[in-house]
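Q: How would the structure tokens look for this protein?
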Amino acid sequence: MVFSSIVFLCIFFPAVIICYYLCPKQLRNFFLLLASLLFYTWGEPKYILIMLFSTVFDYCNGRLLEYFEEKSDKRIWKRFVLVVSIIGNLGILCFFKYTDFILMSVNSATGMDLPLLRLALPIGISFYTFQTMSYTIDVYQGNVKAQHNLISFGMYVCMFPQLIAGPIVRYSDIAQEVDVRKASFSLCASGMQRFLLGLGKKVLLANQIGALWKEISGLEASDLSMSLAWLGALAFTFQIYFDFSGYSDMAIGLGEIFGFHFPENFQYPYESKSITEFWRRWHMTLSGWFRQYLYIPLGGSRKGTVRQIFNLFTVWFLTGLWHGAGWNFILWGLYFFVLLVIEKLFMQKLLNHMPAILQHIYALFWIILGWVIFACDDLSMLKSYCKMLIGIDTPVVNQLALYEWTTHAVFIGILALASTQLMKKTCENIQNKISSACGEAVSFWLKSIWCMLVLFLSMAMLVSGSYNPFLYFRF
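A: Here is the predicted structure in token form.
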């Protein structure tokens, strides 16, 4: 089940909210756990045992870490428990996500014919594995106290709003709210508005421009041109942003409805003036996780340039691998590693002396090219597509390119504006003027009407059976 589905919007979502608020406060964690298990079981019933095992496994590890912390003569056992937790979590993740990739790579490199296991990837395993690992590491480091209530811990791990596509919510982010949280009409209304904003971004923007990328990427090479290839790259650039940030908005909004404050995951990344800045704004919970639990423990930037480059290589190799079991994802991670190293060595100094518009163009060029690497899971397709982007063996423009550009130019412009703060600030200014002139109540109802319009249009799109992929579902 995904948020942008009729079943979720018309049945699961309203039923869970109503039942949640009817539940006594002491039973709400238990109810949210049951609802989350139902949500997960709906899409992947056979793999629910893996998630439940991870939950119990790291609950026990947290309690053991707390026990050995109180026994000064048993600190070595504390380290042992942490190692067991990390190896156990990574072992499960690697087995399901990378086994077939490794076997295929060995077969390709050696000519062997090792049989593939053909394992289906459990939904959300990359996200909940990182969450449970962050919990045991934080307990080990003394940043949080171990959770004693298995139901409450299970609710944290399995909570459906952020289960299958993040944001990656570290236990320390919501530790105070797991057992005690406040729910109010204003918080629920704010969460509902945030959810509907995300739904609109996903269904009305990401899905529509995604259909263009699907069309262009499916064309024969003879039908493509340089300008059409760039239009396709732009389409995917906007699709992945509005798809993923839309899902994050929906997750954060759902969290608010239930009284949680999840961390932000995006901060208008396409406004960035460098690749370094881009990764401070894109998927912030993932980059923050790697920084906190890998980059800094490896030494960060504290041990000289050579060591810092090695640390960056490790982080970005694993970042690429985290996104998927494919050479294009590894290449994508290493691509950003190279760009970040170049910026740290000299490029950032040059950028600081450039006009802001040139800095934006520089960043967007490399960001768009990076998304082409990400999107092309076939390396031969990637090679062919990159050749078209620079006009090798293909015309600059053809009749199809002219048609597609003229058809989608206005929509591309709308997406460009929507991916910046300009549209948000404009809407806020209008809302403030309405509030000043007509009062807060009128402003609230106008905003509610706008949200209902977004819901109506999104539902109409979904009912019509329009293109509705979910890019991060496989991670």
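The mean pLDDT is 92.

Residues 187-418 form one domain.

Upvote if useful.
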